[in-house]
Amino acid sequence: MEAMLRRKFSRLLERFGLDHLVDDGNEIKDNTAGHGDKRLNELWESVQKEGKFSADELDDLETEFNHHREKLKEYKHLLNILEDQGSLSENSVYSQGIMKDDDVENLHVKLQDTHETLTKNFARLKEKVTGEKEEKLFRDPRVNELWERAKDGGISEDELESFKNELHHFDHKILKHKHFEEEARDSKRLLKDGHQHLQDKHDSLVKKAKEHGRWVKKMHSTLMDKVTTKTEL
């Protein structure tokens, strides 16, 4: 039964382009690791130790930090809702809790938006506290994470440059995947408004989004294995 529910959960994630949120065992990954509780607490500790802020400034900063923590709780709550959907069966006594496709799509958008907000907020807080501005080389957080791992892994400059080129290609593909997802959502809304002549276009966009989604998932796994292998040598 558990294996069947995991497969159902996996199909749900893949269908709505959320499969990057889980690991190979279909366990929810904490994608807030880059700006989660640990790093936030460390940043707050540095605020208190440095003593360069006035009492009023400290009070304002604490409010901002608490706001970030609340946003982080919201993100994790959304992830938990998603995980619950994978454990519900249509024959279950809790089947009334199964979300409609449109609701899962809205959850997908909200997850992505909340993740981007968290990333930007943490970068802003870090810059305010340390004066260091985080320059992101790539547009997608997953790609930036791979790049940071590669830089910290003692890889040669030539290998690092080659890996960076691969990451630029990967970053572009992720952007393309997001574009097809957005186009598919827009065409679905138009179909609901009665523009039935767009059915073929919608079907084509959904197909492209799924194909690109599978490619992104496979490429992410390949690049992660590559950087892990090189850093362990």
Automatic annotation (TrEMBL):
Keywords: Coiled coil
Highest taxon of source: Eukaryota
Signal peptide (residue range): none
Pfam family name, one: Alpha-2-MRAP_C
InterPro entries: A2-macroglobuin_RAP (IPR038003), Alpha_2_MRAP_C (IPR010483), RAP_sf (IPR036744)
Limits of the Alpha-2-macroglobulin RAP C-terminal domain: 37-232
UniProt-recorded name of the protein: Alpha-2-macroglobulin RAP C-terminal domain-containing protein
Organism name: Porites evermanni
Organismal lineage: Eukaryota, Metazoa, Cnidaria, Anthozoa, Hexacorallia
